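Postdoc handover notes: sequence design on the structure in folder B. Input tokens:
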């Protein structure tokens, strides 16, 4: 027996669209989302208000006819970022948030921040005007184990920053550990977190046992099952500080299936379906709308979307195409290899 669930249209609070041929290929696959926070880690990165405005124009020009989608732009924080330019971009509605990548933390992050002191004037200005900082929360110290990088980032960078500048609104993106969840839950205000699909559905065993699966490799890396459990509990708790940010990050298949495969999971086509699956498994389908469609807009000070989507539950397992074709080559779609019973009605 099939059943359906009608929800306010969701938003994706962390999305990589890339540029040109890749962007054209992946953009239609975010069609269930009305808006998305678009990541600025292009080569070269989206740093200034002008960069963001021209990138937004390219996204809007690449949208298929009839796709109702609003890109919410972010500025890539560098040690040379100009506070006045950031404030002007926010005031003019060009940029929704600023993104902090510790230098070297992930794909295309070489221009990121090495010394937080150098960006304090920008962060102070953002705190004054209420502009959120989106954070890739991983320390890049080579001596720190990759599985500990989130927890160490919180202790060494994030917590000191928030004590120094309590008025700054911070989104901890793609939270992957129980430590991250606990840190957000302990904050009195000005801190929220997003979860990806893959960190809710999988843990590191799925990536590493019985063969190495490059399509599950992303940053921050999948963690152990106890962390996955903590994420699932927080995501389905109804706490408004937690919401979806898919971190859908397309790379051509050949770049993932390589001796040194790059980080990023392309989940956009299946994200809503898999989140419905997770919430059903946790007995929390009544809280799915909050996570997908309500908590994010409230945090970013935006209205909820007015449209709806319809989710269908099928008894027989649902399957999606294994990859999508783009002008930059095929991109493999996230497939955990576990039973999925949900799809979004088009
Ligand atoms: C992202 C990408 O490919 O741009 N990769 C990833 O594994 N998440 C970068 C990022 O958000 O860290
Ligand atoms: Zn990302």
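Designed sequence:
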């Amino acid at each position: 027996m099939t059943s359906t669930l009608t929800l306010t249209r969701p938003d994706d609070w962390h999305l990589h669209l890339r540029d040109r041929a890749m962007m054209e290929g992946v953009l239609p696959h975010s069609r269930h989302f009305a808006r998305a926070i678009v990541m600025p880690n292009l080569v070269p990165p989206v740093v200034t208000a002008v960069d963001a405005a021209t990138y937004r124009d390219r996204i809007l020009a690449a949208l298929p006819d009839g796709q109702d989608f609003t890109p919410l732009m972010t500025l890539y924080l560098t040690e040379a970022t100009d506070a006045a330019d950031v404030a002007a971009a926010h005031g003019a509605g060009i940029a929704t948030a600023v993104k902090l990548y510790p230098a070297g933390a992930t794909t295309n992050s070489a221009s990121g921040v090495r010394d937080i002191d150098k960006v304090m004037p920008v962060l102070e200005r953002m705190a004054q005007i209420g502009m959120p900082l989106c954070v890739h929360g991983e320390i890049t110290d080579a001596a720190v184990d990759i599985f500990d990088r989130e927890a160490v980032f919180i202790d060494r960078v994030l917590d000191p920053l928030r004590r120094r500048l309590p008025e700054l609104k911070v989104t901890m993106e793609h939270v992957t550990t129980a430590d991250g969840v606990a840190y957000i839950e302990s904050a009195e205000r000005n801190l929220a977190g997003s979860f990806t699909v893959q960190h809710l559905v999988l843990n590191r065993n799925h990536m590493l046992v019985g063969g190495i699966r490059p399509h599950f490799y992303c940053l921050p890396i999948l963690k152990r099952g106890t962390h996955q459990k903590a994420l699932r509990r927080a995501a389905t708790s109804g706490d408004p500080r937690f919401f979806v940010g898919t971190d859908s990050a397309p790379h051509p298949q050949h770049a993932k299936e390589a001796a040194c495969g790059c980080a990023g999971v392309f989940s956009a086509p299946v994200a809503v379906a898999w989140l419905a699956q997770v919430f059903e498994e946790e007995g929390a389908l009544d809280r799915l709308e909050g996570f997908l469609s309500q908590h994010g807009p409230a945090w970013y000070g935006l209205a909820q979307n007015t449209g709806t989507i319809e989710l269908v539950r099928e008894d027989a397992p649902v399957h999606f195409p294994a990859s999508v074709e783009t002008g930059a080559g095929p991109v493999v779609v996230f497939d955990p290899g576990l039973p999925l019973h949900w799809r979004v009605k088009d």
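Context for whoever picks this up: The domain at 3-344 is CATH 3.20.20.140 (TIM Barrel). Don't rerun without checking with the PI first.
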